[in-house]
Structure formats: structure tokens, C-alpha cells
Amino acid sequence: MKFNTKTIHGGQKHDPAYGAVMPPIYQTSTYAQTTPGDHKGYAYSRTSNPTRSALEHAFASIENGNYGLAFGSGLAAIDSVLKLLKSGDEVVSTNDLYGGTYRLFTKIYEEFGIKFHFIGMENVERIEDYINENTKLIWVETPTNPMMNIIDIKTTASIAKKHDVLLAVDNTFATPYLQQPLDLGANIVMHSATKYLGGHSDLVMGALIVKDKALADRLYFIQNASGAICGPQDAFLALRGIKTLHIRMQRHCENGKAVAEFLANHPKIENVYWPGFESHPNHNIAKSQMKDFGGMVSFTTKGNDYEEAIKIVENLKIFTLAESLGGVESLAGHPVSMTHASIPKEEREKIGVVDSLIRLSVGIEDEDDLIADLRQAIG
Q: Is 287 an annotated catalytic residue?
């Protein structure tokens, strides 16, 4: 079954009760048992729920995995991965990553004795310099948030395998439409399903997908024991969103390219970060592991003026100034004061998250309207 078909049918069955084409919303906390322990596959909805199960099968299908898990948020999914570790373990992570991930790593898990190394992974050979007998996990975002850096998943997976270390890839920006990290050797794929998988800015959810049963069993245990689940209504919405993922991503990519090229030719713009440019440092890696280059674009203004960046995002009419990304509508964010405010200024600036940086989630509106909006806002 090819990807465009998987988004609609992958891992899905018609509801056995009445043949419903869409899995019903099983809005229930518990299930009748004929005798203790004898039930129809479901006992309590923290452990499993038919609507969530349908979604988890869909997650596994579109990422070419064997097991999917749905969580109450992307951070809840990441939290469950870190619960595989213990005090004294070490993690090698990219230094350009979502601010909430950085906050979870440094403000929560460092307090429990887990050590994190944040490094630039554009040159993956650097990773081995930080691996030792305590290293248990490599954490990768690609493209990264918000600098759009590209990390070679296949080579990183080879390094992880060589050292018997887990590799987890945050695939939120690319989605399985553009790249499938499990096929490139990753052990775990994570999504903030709030973003492109849901696609309509109407839910908050996380996902993990794996191939290995033993690893899946550990994660299912953590999910259940920690109660890090999503509700059936959100599961239903995510299932609906996934069914149009392929056609939405096509338009996101088309519009992202048009917006990136417009910004690159604007006299007031200094830098544009988008992996589709041949000048992008790892463009060839992006081209080899991604089907297209996505709808996320970041840029800075000449002079790196904070007030100028604020003025631009406030003047936008079609782009909405808001947290998050990946919805059908175009969004704009100012990472320094929004998504990456939890990262210390000196650490932000080392990776290029400067005062004038603006991150765009380019939606599926008409590209001419989006470009006109940016033109009037930039001036």
C-alpha cells in the first residue's frame, strides 16, 4: 500500500458493531466484563480505548512502524522516551531544537541526574566525540526548530547502532509524507501530532512509533503507568486529519517554496532558512532523505533589529501571530519571545536564534495572497 493510500486506509478497519467507515468516538472510561478479567479487549480507557487504538494503528502505518502510541501532547511523548533512562545516563541532542524539549531536558531531567550534551549535528561525525559508556540516547530534530538545519538520519543511525545507543527522531516538521526515519535506521519516531498530523489547529497530541516489540512494550507500560494518554475526541480528530495529510503537505511544500524564494529576493531580508535552497549547508542530505522540503521557513531582517521583527509580525494580516505550526492556516512566530524564550539568550544566539528571527508556518492558502501579506508587513 502506497503512502497516499495509507493515510486513508492504513491500519484501519470498519467498526465491527455497525460497519462505520470512520472509527466511532468511544467516549467511555470503562467497559463491561462478564467475569473478572473477561472482556472484549478493553477494560479501562487509560490502558486502551478503541478510538485511540485506531489512531495508533494509523500512526504506525504511515511511519512504516509496527507499533504506535498516542499521547496527550508531544512533550508527554518525549517525557515517556526519557523515562526509559535512569540517573547517570547521558543523552546527545542537537543544540537547535524546540524550546519545550530543551526545557524538559534541562529543567526536569537534569534534576534527576541525566546528563545532556547539546551539539550541532550538521556534521554528524561530531556525535561520536560525545558518546561514552553512559550514553543511552541520541535525540535528533530534522529539520530543526527554528533554524531548519538538516541532520543525516541514516549516518546517525549507523553511529547509534555501532555504540548500542537508541536513536529518536522528532519528525514533526517533515512528517512521514516527506521522510520516514524508521526506514533510515532510527529506533523511535516522535511527533507533536498537534502540528501537521492533526493539521487543523484543533487538538494537542503527541505520538511515538517504533518497530521493535520489546521497546514498544516498555513504552506502552510507561504510557499506561504515567497516564500520558490522549482522549477519544482528540484521537478522532487526529484520524480525520491524517486522511488529508498527503494533499495538505503537497500544498505546504509548494507555498513554502514560493515564500522562501520571495524572502530570499527581498532587499530588507538578511537570511532565509529553508532546506530547499541549493546553498543550504546540508541541502544534498535533505534531498536524499526527504521527498520535498516542507512548509517551514525562518528568516532574519537586515540589522537584526528586535523592534523591526515585532513590527513585521504585528502587521501581518493573513499570517496569524501565534504559537504552534502545521495547520492549514499560515502562522508566524517570533522564537526569541515565544517558542524559544525558555532557552537562555547566550545559548539561543550560538545557534542563530537572534532577535530578528521570524519563523513562518506556511499554510495552504493561495500563495499570491501570502506573498502580498509578507510584502505589506515587511514594507
A: no
